[in-house]
Amino acid sequence: MSMRACSLFKTASRSFTSSRSLSNKVCVVGAAGGIGQPLSLLLKNNSLVTELSCYDLAPVTPGVAVDLSHINTPAKVTGYVGQENMVAALKDCDVVVIPAGVPRKPGMTRDDLFNINAGIVAGIGAAVSEACPKAMLCVISNPVNSTVPIMAETLKKHGCYDPKRLFGVTTLDVTRANTFVAENQGFPVEDMNVKVIGGHAGTTILPLLSQVEGANFSAEDIEKLTHRIMFGGDEVVQAKAGGGSATLSMAYAGAEFAIKLMGAMGGKKDVVECAYVESTVTDCSFFSSPVTLGPNGAEEVHHFGEINEHEQKLFDEMLPDLKAQVAKGVDFVANQK
Question: What is the span of the domain harbouring residue 206?
Answer without folding.
Answer: 171-327
